[in-house]
Every structure is written in C-alpha cells, then in structure tokens.
Specification:
Length: 410
C-alpha cells in the first residue's frame, strides 16, 4: 500500500444540472451524509472552515481512523447561476426551446445512439417530452369535451386553454418537466456554441488547478464530476492541460472520477466534435488517471458502457469502468423507500452508504487510500479498512488495466 495512501487531498467537485439542489443544500447534504459515512466505516469526520465565493464554495474535512488522518480541502464548483438563468426564462420560451432541443438531439442521431448504448438513458431523454405530449392530449380532450357540451368553438378553445394551464400548473414543476427541458436546452447550447459564463468560469478554475498542481502540498488532486458535471470536469481538465501539458506528471498525482456520468449525453450528439476532441485529449494525457463509476438502477447515467468506444474514439485510453450496485450500498428498508425515485437514486453517487461497498463517495474524497487505488481495486476500500476503521495493508485484487499501467511508463 506504500505510495497509495493520502494524508492531504485537494478535491474539486462539479455537480450536475440540478435546479433543485442549491449550493447551500449541497453543503448541508455533505454534512448530513458524511455522518452515515462515519457510522459505516467506524471513522470520525469533522467538517469546518466554510468559505463562500461566486465561483465555488469551500470547506475543510478532517477524517481520522485509529492509525490515519486525512485533511481534505473540498471545493464545490458553482454553476447554479447558469441554471437559474435558464429557469428564469418565460415558460413559453422554455417550451419552444425545449422542443427545438428535442428535435436537434433526434436529428443529430443522439436518441438512436442512446437506445444503442443504454435504453434507460433513452427513456430518461424521452420522459419530459412524452409527459408534455400527454398534457397536450389531456388539454385537447378537455377542449373536445367542452365543444360537445357547449357546441361553441370559442368556448371549447377557451376551456381547452384553461385546462392546459391547469394541468401544466401542477405538472410543470412537480414532474420536473421544466427543469428537464432546461437541461436539454443547456446541453444543446453547450454542444452548438458553448455558454460564455461556463467558459469563463472553467478558464478561471483551470488556472487555479494548474497553480495547485505546481504549488500545493496535497498528496492527491481529485476532480469529481457527477452527472452532467462529468462533462464539465473533462472540459476543465482539457483547459488546464492547455496551460500545462505536464499536468499530473510532476509532483502531485491527478485523478478524474466521473460518477453517474452524462458524458455520452453530450458526446453521442453528431455535432459534438469539439467535445469529443476534448475527451480524447484528457483520456490520452499520461498524467491523468480516469475512473468512471456507473450504476445499473440509475436511468440518468449510462450503465455498462465504455465511453471512448461509444463515441468512436481510441479504445486504448478507456477509463477504468466500475459498475455500482446501489441496492447493495443501502439497508433494504432505505432502498425500498426510494427505489422508484430516480432523482434520489442518481444522488446516491454523492450520498453516504449504509453498508461498506466498492463505491463510496466519501471514502474516495476523504479516505486514507488514493482514489486511483480504490478504483483499481475491484473491491474499492473494503479490504483496506478494518472493522475498527484502521488502515490495513491489502493487495490490489485486479491487475491494472493497460490504460492505467501506461501512466507508469511516462
């Protein structure tokens, strides 16, 4: 285990397109869920030194076991202002742009690619549009019924319009139709011409990341991208590599962990040539180790997929893919309570586990074993942490893939 342990870690976390979870809530969730982590792994954790900024929120985490101590400097990258700007548009504008985004992804071959790669993600793509179509049909039925009763076309149209407003008022937010329309609107914009606010923020963060890689005393720099944030994490690393092509090779190991990733959401769109080139540059970089965690029950990620292969890129540099079973991470009663809440299942990637498992978010970002070592071991940190929370020596249970071994030859 020598060389694979961590005493200080620097983490940059980029979340997904989530208009529900504000930075305040994300911080509260982190504090709440790390308590579960402590119980599960028999360790202690202290979260403190909260710092707020326009681009990120930061805090410090000190985790300890009987024979180890880790100091984590945690950076939550903000882009809630971008998400809010889409949500604040007029409903009619959001509907129109959402429908345009739908046909864009269909005609660009993305929908068919989703079906080929993972039918669950295709269902996730179709959900808001099918639901919206059903609302239209409901309003049309009300209109027809009103005409049959009144015999008046103007009355029927008026009643149908009011019926549409009524069904939309409850369903638009409760069924997440509006936020999902915005998600696809943003994704289309990101593919086609980019988002200026995101571009500037990633450039600024790339400069900070390069400076940290040169000057930090951390043992590991960890970039975590959840959901659509995985695409932004890759984008961030590409910008950092343009500033320093030796990133991760000089002093501090750099690891990219994508969880519940939507990289293929972007990469399977025919027009996403710029993004696919970005992914390939990051994947071939000898100083960056990339691990990708995918969950079968989560419809908002691509399960059992090789991202590079699906995008038609070089398979020599595939990330190390690990498959996650969320049902084995939680107590049965807990899992049954939200097994049909797909958003909550998706958020388990950033939540604490009830049981020790090969994937544990807090062990990756706050544990004493490097994220790379945890990813390379098929059992994660399970065999590395004793029942009392002590760090124990354990060999890797799998041979390192070629994509990981190439790091050591550079």
């Amino acid at each position: 285990m020598a060389g694979n342990t961590v005493a200080k870690r620097l983490v940059f976390h980029i979340g997904g397109y989530d208009p529900i979870t504000s930075p305040d809530f994300a911080r509260q969730r982190f504090v709440r869920e790390i308590a579960r982590f402590q119980r599960t792994w028999s360790v202690k954790a202290l979260v403190e030194d909260f710092r707020d900024g326009p681009d990120q929120r930061q805090w410090s985490v000190t985790t300890t076991g009987p024979n180890w101590r880790v100091q984590t400097d945690y950076h939550l990258i903000r882009w809630d202002d971008v998400i809010d700007s889409f949500r604040d548009r007029a409903t009619g504008t959001r509907i129109a742009l959402g429908i345009i985004a739908f046909w864009d992804f269909v005609f660009a071959g993305a929908l068919w690619a989703y079906f080929r790669a993972n039918w669950g993600y295709a269902a996730f793509f179709l959900y808001p549009y099918v639901t919206f179509g059903l609302l239209i049909l409901t309003a049309l039925s009300i209109c027809i019924l009103a005409f049959k009763i009144s015999g008046s076309v103007p009355v029927a149209i008026g009643v149908g319009f009011l019926g549409f407003i009524a069904v939309m008022a409850g369903a638009w937010r409760r069924l997440h139709i509006g936020s999902l329309f915005d998600d696809w609107i943003f994704s289309r914009e990101y593919i086609r011409w980019g988002n200026s606010t995101i571009e500037k923020r990633l450039d600024k963060l790339a400069t900070e990341l390069v400076a940290a890689a040169r000057n930090s005393d951390a043992d590991e720099i960890l970039i975590v991208g959840h959901s659509l944030g995985a695409a932004l994490a890759v984008d961030l690393l590409d910008r950092a590599l343009k500033l320093d092509n030796a990133l991760g090779r000089r002093k501090i190991p750099l690891t990219l962990i994508t969880i519940g990733s939507s990289i293929l959401k972007i990469g399977l769109h025919r027009a996403a040539t710029r993004f696919r080139a970005t992914v390939e540059r990051v994947a071939v970089s000898p100083g960056i180790f990339w691990g990708d965690y995918q969950a079968r029950i989560d419809l908002m990620n691509f399960y059992n997929c090789q991202p590079m292969s699906e995008m038609g890129l070089s398979v020599e540099n595939e990330p190390v893919v690990r498959l996650v079973e969320i049902g084995r991470m939680l107590e049965h009663a807990t899992y049954r309570r939200f097994r049909l809440d797909f958003f909550r299942l998706h958020c388990q990637f950033v939540s604490g586990n009830d049981k020790r498992a090969s994937y544990d978010y807090f062990m990756l970002v706050c544990g004493p074993v490097s994220a790379r070592s945890q990813t390379l071991d098929a059992n994660g940190a399970v065999a590395m942490i004793g029942e009392d929370g002590a760090l124990i020596k354990a060999p890797l249970s799998v041979v390192e893939p070629l994509s990981a071994r190439r790091l050591d030859r550079k």
